[in-house]
Every structure is written in C-alpha cells, then in structure tokens.
Amino acid sequence: MRHLRRLLATGVLLAISCFGFNAARGQAKSTSTSTPLPRKGLTLSLWAREPMLKNPVALSFDDAGRLYVVETARRSTVDIDIRAHASWIIEDLANQSIGDLRRFFRMRMAPEKSLENASWLRDYNGDGLHDWRDLTMVKERVHLLQDTRGTGRADRAQVFAEGFNEEISGVIAGVMPWERDVFVTVYPDLWRLRDTNGDGVADEKESWFHGFGVHAAFDGHDLHGLTVGPEGKLYFSIGDNGFSVTNREGRRLHHPNTGGVLRMNPDGSDLEVFAIGLRNPQEIAFDEFGNMFAVDNDGDLEDERERFVYITEGSDSGWRLHWQFRDAGWARHTHQPRYNPWTAERMWVPAFPGQPAHITPPLANYSVGPGGFKYNPGTALNETYLRHFFLVQFPVQKVTAFQVKPRGASFEMVNEHVFLSGMMASAVNFSPDGALFVADWDGLWEPNDKGAIWVVDDPTQVGSAARREVKRLLAEGMQQRPAPELGALLGHADVRIRQRAQFELALERDDRWIEALNMPDRQQHAQFLRQRDQPSTLLDGRCDRLLDQRRHAGQ
C-alpha cells in the first residue's frame, strides 16, 4: 500500500507536470543536416584526461555536479566472447542461469585444461596455470571526478569503487547516482553503492539482484542504461545474454535468450520486466512526455540493420539470442538449418502488412553501433537543441542528434544530423548546468588505458539565469520546500526539476501533494478529477476522502 499511494500521487503529479503546464509547447524548428559543429554556435573543450580516467564506458552526474565514470579493464581481456570459442556454442546456449554459466566456465577452463587454454588465456594470477581463476584477477572501476575550483577542468579524481571481478563478471557498463545511492550495473549483478562518510569512496557495496547475463555470447551485450522513469521507478536495459533473476517478492524473472528493459522502485522492491525482444539497447531515454525510446544493435546478419525503437510496457520487439547463430558461419557448430525467422519474416524492419503481429516493430532502421543515448532535459545547450535525442555511434566516430514527432499511434524520426564527429565517443550525459559531457574511449575496441571527457556547450548560454537556477535547485534538493513552491516547480522548463518536485510531493512525509493541487488553475484541477474517475486509477480511502471534500467544497 505504501508504494500504491506513492505511485498514485506520482501519476497524478506526472500528468500535471507533463501536460498541465507544457502541452502547449510545439516541436522545435527543423535543423539543417550535416552542419559542422561551429555553425551551431557550440564549442568543444577538454575537461579531463588520463591518468584521471581510462577506458570510460558510461558516465552520470549527481545533483551536486560530481561526475561518476565507469571504466573497464575486463573487455577483450577476461570477458569471454563466444566468437572466439565457437565450438562452445551449443553448451553456452544451453545455460539457463548464472549457476549454469559458472559451472560451464569452470569446466571449460578447469586447471587440468591449462595447456589447452594457454594460447588465449593469460596467467593473470601467476600460479603457473591458465584456468578460470585468472578471470577473477582483472577488476572494473567507478571513478569520481570533480571540478572543485570551478575552472571548467576536473581537478580531483579518485576511485569510488572497484572490483566486480567474479569469473563470470562482464563489462561494467552502467552508473547512476540517485539520492544517497550510486547504482552500478555489471554482469551478473545490479549493485547499490553508498558513501556514508562523505570521503568520496563507497563504503557500502551491496548486490541487489544477481542473475543477469546467463550466456557468454557476445561481449559488449551488457547490463546498462540506468535511468529514472517519469513515475519515479528506476529503469535499466540488458543485452541478449539474457537473465534469470528472482525479485524480492519471490517472483522469478526468467528470459534467458533475449534482451529488454526492467524497472524497480528506488528501494529495490517490485523488480519487473518492462519489455523484451531487444538485442542490445545500450541506453534508453524518455522524452518529456514519458515515452521511452532506444536505438538497438543489429544481429550482425546479412542485409539487416540497427533499429530505432519505441518501447512500451509489455512490448516484444522480436529478437532472440539464438537467431544470431543461424547463418552459414555457425552451421558447422550448431548443425542447424539455415533458416532465421528474424530475417525471413523481416521483423527488423518498420511495420508493413503481413509482419508478425506479436512484435512491436521498429520506427526506423538507423545508426551504426549505437552506444550512449540521452535526451535534452529542457534547459541544456541552447534553443536549437531543445527536444533532441543524442546518440553515440561508436564505430563511425560520431554523435548524431534528432527529434521525434507523432505519427498516428507511434512516432517518426525527424531532423537527424551529425552533431559531433571524429571522436571515439562511448557515452554522453548532461551536467546539472546544462552542458553535454562526452566520454572519449580514445582507441578502438580493446582497452588501451587512454580516455578523456569533453564538454560540448554554447558559450552564449553558459551561466544563464535559467541554467544557474537548475544547478542551484538540484544542489539544494526538494525536501524542505513548501507545497506551493513544489507545485510551481511542476511547471519548470527542465524535466529534472519537474520530476524531483513531483517525486517529493508523492512521498508520504505529509499531504503536501494534496495542498499543491490547490492551485488557481481550475483546468488543471478538473483534469486531475477526471483522471481520478478513470477505472484504471488506483486510489486508497484516504485520498478518496480528501478529494471528495475538495469536490464538495466547490473546488
């Protein structure tokens, strides 16, 4: 019931913050394609470089403006990729859980098979054997970077957390600070970290959920994409290495042969599957109206491409892991006929008559090697880039930008163009003051101990009143603000502020969310009452009584 009431209040306030104040906003004007970066009025500046960080995979700011960067050393060293061990494929596909995968690794890389594995598995622990224990010797890291002097360059870097190095651990690929915690994703776990004494080092490290990545399959198909949804739940994405996880309520979430999106409450309760049928959606992003999008990787198959996808609750985009092993190159290992439903039934292309009806088809075939993916929160960069998504296309060294507009019951991509080129970017994210930070891998596929963080911004907007306000509000938080102020912030131009006001009002500390509804805009109140009367709206008795009192009072 506690979460029921919170989700009720959150849903009501979400409707107000998304539509009551902002529905009149139209689409931004079209931008020209292939415009060089300087013509947009933007500049590129270096913020940090190795040795402050190296091999960055993802990055995220806390509300105080500190940057968390996750760094990999396991990729291409001890993160097993089935393409290098094609003869293992049938055994790997048979794995249905993390326990299966662990037993498989320890059998294939047993000490007695040391000579057999010596050509590819380095003796990392120096015990004279090339076995599964060597996979535990390479650690992943979370770095914490800060610009403490306000110079526009990072001047402090420290290791916030490291480890994540079981023999079955994958690449650390997701990070998100939220309230007092920092969430990190790395197969096979979703981790909750916390710095309890303020020294910049996590002294609490707890695996909240264990069981992601039940196959070796392809490396890079990781656990990632951490973000906060419009109703206050935490969302994350997973590649098609699959998962078999039991949530805190005892329900088994078992999808071992596909990728998708999961979500949970911020306290870890009610973990559930939101969508399946995706191959490797590196990151997901919401627009200001709560619509979820991603750009999903292709299946590395002939005559097939990556996909821009619209993801809805309960949707299935159609992909299954084993289909990538149905081409001629794998036939001598799988002994399967060369028939692939994914390509034969054209599930990878936008909707057409006769397409399988059980899938949600892509909006477009788009991109090369999609990586980091973010949406302008509302006050970032400049007016030109309002309502834009930003996508990293790692192999072709560019970041593209685009918008979406409604098309029937779905959407279409518009105004797509190159935003930044010539950099091996791996991820992007917005700082509290509205600049776009870009993680630079500075290499090719393998880690090379290099890396940098760059800043893209509009110098005419740096330090503007709107952006200073966002930075201040995020740093101060919402807990001590009175209801009228929180109600007003539901109409803020920046979704980060709207959501934090919404989430604060939805908490059970008091009835401020009821008070916040007592605003002069009768249309907003009428909209709330209409929502209350919908059969799908869940209300407890306390809220019913309060709302009936307001209605009978003529409000």
N-to-C span? 27 Å
CATH names the topology of the largest domain as Neuraminidase
pLDDT < 50 stretches = 1-36, 522-555
**Overall geometric form:** globular
How many beta-strand elements?
26
The assigned CATH architecture of the largest domain is 6 Propeller
Task: Report the mean per-residue pLDDT as an integer.
Answer: 88
Number of helices: 12
- Count of distinct structural domains: 2
Percent strand equals 25-35%
Secondary-structure class? alpha+beta
Helix content: 10-25%
- Please name the fourth-level CATH homologous superfamily of the largest domain: TolB, C-terminal domain
The major pleated sheet works out as:
4 strands, antiparallel
The first-level CATH class of the largest domain is given as Mainly Beta
Strand numbers in spatial order across the main sheet: 1-26-25-24
Question: What is Rg?
Answer: 24 Å
How does this model look, in words?
The chain has 555 residues and is of the alpha+beta class. The protein has two domains: 2-23 and 476-552, no CATH class; 53-80 and 160-439, Neuraminidase (6 Propeller), CATH 2.120.10.30. The chain is built from twelve helices and 26 strands. It has helices at 2-20, 89-94, 98-108, 114-117, 328-334, 341-344, 465-476, 483-489, 495-506, 512-516, 522-532, 541-552, and strands at residues 43-49, 56-61, 67-71, 140-146, 156-163, 174-178, 181-186, 189-194, 204-210, 223-228, 234-238, 243-246, 252-255, 259-264, 272-278, 284-286, 292-296, 307-311, 364-365, 370-375, 389-393, 398-407, 410-421, 425-430, 436-440, 452-457. The strands form seven sheets. Strands 1-26-25-24 form a four-stranded antiparallel sheet, with no helix packed on it. A hairpin with a 2-residue loop joins strand 22 and strand 23. Helix 1 (2-20) runs antiparallel to helix 9 (495-506) and helix 1 crosses helix 11. Mean pLDDT is 88; it is low at 1-36 and 522-555.
